[in-house]
Structure formats: structure tokens, C-alpha cells
Amino acid sequence: MSKETMAVRPGGPLGGDFSAGTLRILPLLVAVVVYGLLFGTLAAQKGLSPLETALMSAIVFAGASQFVAVEIWTSPPAVVLLGATALMVNLRHVLMGAALAPFLKGWSRGQVYGGLFFMADENWAFALQRSAKTPLTPGYYFGLALPLYAGWIACTTLGAIFGGFLQDPARYGLDFAFTAVFLTLLTGLWKGRRSFLPWGAAALAAVAGHLFLPGVWYIALGGLAGALVGALATPLPKPQEQADAA
After folding, report:
1. What is the distance between the alpha carbons of residues 228 and 226, in angstroms, rounded to a whole number?
2. Where are the transmembrane segments (predicted)?
3. Measured between alpha carbons, how far is residue 100 from residues 120, 154, 189, 214, 244 in Å?
4. Alpha-carbon distances, residue 167 vs 34, 40, 106, 162, 198 (angstroms)
5. Half-sphere exposure of 34 (CA within 13 A, CB side)
6. Rounded distance, CA 188 to CA 75, Å?
7. What pLDDT is attached to residue 231?
């Protein structure tokens, strides 16, 4: 087997790809520290113990839905309401998974399911960037995902332990940390003029949903509007192009 084949084969050596993914995600972990400590602080203020906070982060692993869950947390918790809210917030993962699926060909079933569990906005964006240049291997993907997963659990737990020392995180602007991260990720996903229409539609739908609808429907509406406009704005391949692709 040639070196070139080994380099692109999904089941090939994972060490180099894993290290490359880890190095790619490391700068982002700085923001994860701030964001995780913030969540842990808010969780502690709602009465969650460090162990409960760690378990939520390990099982759910979705920052946005965890923040929303903590915001509506009651004692005892309203399980149905929490579950429905988390599902609503994470509906965007359906679209994210659909966008990533074409680049997972050749992965084993376990790798695909594991990759979907560890999928977060940040490693998803970096994975798409990678797949535009070279085949996306499991090693690279899990190099992105596992440090992010471990860092999120560790930082949210620390935030719950030491949350009493940070009474109002927003006072220091720490609540803006992940907004800044997402803006940075967007610059890497910009593909010129063809990105304008779906991004604009997503932004308008999300703002309208936030203004006129209760709860967090604006997240799902923004994702669905962007996906729909993106699909409609993408020209269908000509018959000759379809034949060439086949």
C-alpha cells in the first residue's frame, strides 16, 4: 500500500492525525475554560453539586442547551420541560450531522456513532474546514473532539466548585467569550458571496424568532431557514456533471 493511500484511508494510522486535530483545537480551549467556568458558576448558584454538574457535562455535552437548562432549573427539576427544551435547542445538530455525513464515508459504524456523540459546534466547524482540503479521518476528528470534551467537563466542574468566588460573571464580560469564538469560526466557514444568502436568512429568522416567539425557538428557526435557503440557492448539477460524477 502506498504512503498516499495510507494518508487518506480512514482506518489508517491515527497518531499523526489525532495530534493534528488536537493542535488545531488547543487555542479554542482558552475560551472553553472561560465558558466552562461560567456555566459551572451558574449551575452552583442554582444548587447543582460539582458531581451533578460534571455528570450533566459528560452526558449532555452541549453548552447552549446546558445554559438554557440551568436557566429554567427548578428543585425538583421539571424533567419533561428540561428534556423538551434541550431537544429544541439541539435540533441544529440534525442539520450539522447532515452536513458532515458525506465526509464520514469509510468510517466504521462505531466511529460514526461516537463522532456524532462528541459533535459540538466547534469541532464540527473545524472538521468541515478540514474536509474541504483533505479527507476527514477519525483520528483528526477525535483529536478535535476529545480534548474539547475533557476540557468542558473539567472546567464546568471547577466552576461549580469555585463558583462562589465569581458572583456575577457577566460583570466582567465573560459571558461574551463563546460569542467571540463563534464569530471567529464563521470567518473560516465563509465561502464568499454564496454564503451571504443562507447566513442572512438564518440571521433574520433567528432575530425574528427571538423577538416574537417565547423560549429558544430562534435557534432552530435560524438553522432551518439557513439550510432551506442554502439548498434552494445551490444550483442542481447538469446531467453531464452527474454522469461524470458517477
Report:
1. 6
2. 20-42, 54-73, 79-104, 140-166, 172-189, 196-213
3. 12, 27, 13, 30, 23
4. 14, 12, 49, 10, 39
5. 16
6. 42
7. 67
